[in-house]
Amino acid sequence: MIRFGPLIVLAALLALWQAAGMAMRVETLPTPLAVLPELWALFASGEIWGDLRASLYRLAAGFVLALATGVPLGILCGRSAAVRGFVSPLLALFYPVPKAALIPILMLWLGAGDLSKITIIYLSVTLPIVYHGQQGAAAVEEKLVWSARAMGTGRAGVLLRIILPASLPELLLGVRVAIVIGLIVMISSEMIVRQNGLGYDIFNAMDMAQYRLTYAVIVVVAVLGFVLDATFERLRRRLTFWAPERQDQLPTGA
Amino acid sequence: MIRLDRVSKTYTRAGGGEPVRALSEISADIADGAFVTIVGPSGCGKSTLLYIVGGFVPASGGAVLVEGKPIAGPGPDRGPVFQEFALFPWKTVRQNIRFGLAEQNVPRAEADRRVDELLDLVHLRQYAALYPKELSGGMKQRVAIARTLAYRPRTLLMDEPFGALDAHTRAKLQDELLQIWERERKTVLFITHGVDEAVYLSDRILVMSAAPGAIKADIAVDLPRPRRREELLRHPRYQELVIEIGRMMDTTA
Amino acid sequence: MILRALRSCYSVLLLLAAWELFARSGMVPRTLLPPVSLVLQRTAIALATDTFVADLATTLFRLLAGLALAVGLGIALGVISAQTRAGRAIFEPLVRVLGPLPKIALFPVLLLTLGFDNTPRIVLVLIDAIFPVMLAAHYAARAVDEKLIWSARAAGTSPTGCVLRVILPAAMPQILTGIRVAAVIACVVVFLSEMVQPGDGLGDQMIRAARAFRSVDMFVPIVVISGLGFILDTLLALVRRRALGWAG
Ligand SMILES: Nc1ncnc2c1ncn2[C@@H]1O[C@H](COP(=O)(O)OP(=O)(O)OP(=O)(O)O)[C@@H](O)[C@H]1O
Ligand SMILES: [Mg+2]
């Protein structure tokens, strides 16, 4: 029941959509059964792969950069009042900024290529990683650090072998939030710029009145979101099996 | 009168696993106005029994009858006082005590009068505007008792109400409770780990045995009332009872 | 007081100063990076211009309408679903499926089914902002100490009364935290919806500026919507502190 919960919910949502489509009988709300062949064609013709690859490449690149810089920065923030005093106000300043909306400005600076899109994902994804990294590192029990110091661990060793693993549960919650945010920023910046990628496909199909195609791409995006989140969630649980589970942390993103 | 008629309880656990037998066929009659205390080893089901009498947790077998009628859930005739205080943290002392009166639609002026009366009774007049987080443990417990007394339940269900307090505060609250009881003659069902507390307060002590809980002994406390601590401590019968029940507890644990 | 506040966010001042100096140094063309002072000056002018204020009002209306719906429905759904076993069983899988879905991807569906005016944007804000509120309400309602509920039930409170007068106030601290998150999400989403499908509103201002390469005017709507998010967040933090003095 617990494991199949999402599948049951999915089936129920599809049934709801089917019923709505059958009741409305309009071209702009096709039923899932009508969208299915379109979805099949999308993959069979290979049409979607290019855009899927383009989108995912940018997401992955932005993410790797964010992890490489955000994790150390977050941990330092959590352990040093000076670093925190510098970084926290900047985080607070950028928190309410609609990051995806910066894409036109970034394109002005970095050109219309991948660089501006990777940068936008990097910027938006770094924030939750730094924030949660800081929360995790700041909450590490001081006695743990003392014990390690007493056993002869150096400062760097403490950061790497005590603070990092101890803040991992909180940090990974941040990464989970970041995945959802990254996806949102990726899709919305593609919708704004309208060059390529899944976000572009959705609107392009709509503008050409290919409504079934619009829905097919949306389904692809939805599945992508679910698969990314569920895959990461399994990884997260495996990495932090020792930590008490916090159930109020389910995926949503700003 | 409250009658426990072969009350038993088995907890089934949500994730599967062995069900826990907490109580097996508990029967007892609790007379109106009696002060009855339940003692027994930790985990023997004392709280469970109290929750069932309160109507908060359903029994798996048997029934609880109040005046001959089986209970249907909680009701203002049986007022609980929990070990954890369970005060509403978003309400002041005054608002906490007033809660039950508002729920019973007692007119405003009358409710205010009753709250003032209770504030005096538990000596919390000058703390009426404070929030629970600003109170000490003993003060919180007094608020909890006043909140329950406010709606005048016929029976008080008290689950280790003084368990979390220091010895001095506990002794003071025991005396206050006895004074209230002498005056209002409510039925009290009281749970404690302290044998001396049980003997000092009660008319009757039910000793429970460990899992699944059952009543192992039913002891009448034949000590004079009103009770005064210094006199009682020297009373030979008091000492006998404490030793006797203490011994029973040792063998059940 | 003010001095202390300024010192506590010295890094922000440093950043703004660096931006100003860099922009004025002549190393980058003004069209790429206008100085902060110019952006702020232009923002002030915009806020005194009727057309801009009209767009601001449009955005604000959509934002607040969507947020209000998200708060109302989120609290109701979260708390009610926590009351029954079936509700609790459905809640988590539902959120696991719908949570990671980028709601903005549904925007075309909303446009197609609800028309091209305010409604689809309000609904988009609703379906995005409802999640933090609903999650907070649901899990906080589940975590309410059962003894609090029992105390009320014994005092004669009905089950519905318990939900309204015990569970809801007990869950309020977490719910307000959820609402704060939702408010910022709402600001972001309404702005994006106006950029993705322009027509009016602050997002439309941004798109028009971008198409005409008026770089200063591209910064202005961003400053305004971020400021709006900041103000909402601060106000809600204030409400939380005021109304929830009781929470430890
Ligand atoms: N909600 C529950 N679900 C499953 N088992 C429970 C539950 N509540 C209590 N139990 C089990 O029932 C038994 C009796 O518990 P109860 O709390 O009534 O004991 P108690 O006598 O009050 O103990 P203590 O003196 O420590 O307060 C214990 O074995 C306990 O583990
Ligand atoms: Mg107990």
TrEMBL record, chain A:
Record key words, sorted: Cell membrane, Membrane, Transmembrane, Transmembrane helix, Transport
Pfam families cross-referenced by the UniProt entry: BPD_transp_1
Keyword Transmembrane helix: yes
Cross-referenced SUPFAM superfamilies: MetI-like
Record family assignment: Belongs to the binding-protein-dependent transport system permease family.
GO annotations of cellular component type: plasma membrane
Protein's UniProt keywords contain Membrane: yes
Membrane topology: Multi-pass membrane protein
Signal peptide boundaries: none
Domain ABC transmembrane type-1: 52-232
Organism, scientific name: Limobrevibacterium gyesilva
Main location: membrane
BP terms from Gene Ontology: transmembrane transport
Protein name (Swiss-Prot/TrEMBL): ABC transporter permease
Superkingdom classification of source: Bacteria
UniProtKB/TrEMBL annotation, chain B:
PROSITE patterns per the UniProt record, alphabetical: ABC_TRANSPORTER_1 (PS00211), ABC_TRANSPORTER_2 (PS50893)
Keywords for the protein's UniProt record, in alphabetical order: ATP-binding, Nucleotide-binding, Transport
Key word ATP-binding present: yes
Signal peptide extent: none
CDD domains: ABC_NrtD_SsuB_transporters (cd03293)
InterPro entries linked to this entry: AAA+_ATPase, ABC_transporter-like_ATP-bd, ABC_transporter-like_CS, ABC_transporter_ATP-bind, P-loop_NTPase
Coiled-coil intervals: none
The keyword Lipid metabolism is annotated on this UniProt entry: no
Entry superkingdom: Bacteria
All copies of domain ABC transporter, residue ranges: 2-235
GO molecular function annotations of the record: ATP binding; ATP hydrolysis activity
PANTHER family: ALIPHATIC SULFONATES IMPORT ATP-BINDING PROTEIN SSUB, TAURINE IMPORT ATP-BINDING PROTEIN-RELATED
Similarity comment text for this entry: Belongs to the ABC transporter superfamily.
Annotated protein name in UniProt: ABC transporter ATP-binding protein
Organism, scientific name: Limobrevibacterium gyesilva
Automatic annotation (TrEMBL), chain C:
Name of this protein: ABC transporter permease
Origin superkingdom: Bacteria
Principal place of residence: membrane
SUPFAM superfamilies: MetI-like
Transmembrane segments annotated in the record for this chain: 60-82, 94-116, 122-141, 162-192, 218-239
Membrane topology: Multi-pass membrane protein
Keyword Cell membrane in annotation: yes
The UniProt record lists the keyword Protease: no
GO term, biological process aspect, one: transmembrane transport
Pfam short name (any one): BPD_transp_1
InterPro entries xrefs: MetI-like, MetI-like_sf
Protein family (similarity comment): Belongs to the binding-protein-dependent transport system permease family.
UniProt keyword annotations, A-Z: Cell membrane, Membrane, Transmembrane, Transmembrane helix, Transport
GO CC entries: plasma membrane
Domain ABC transmembrane type-1: 56-240
Subcellular location: Cell membrane
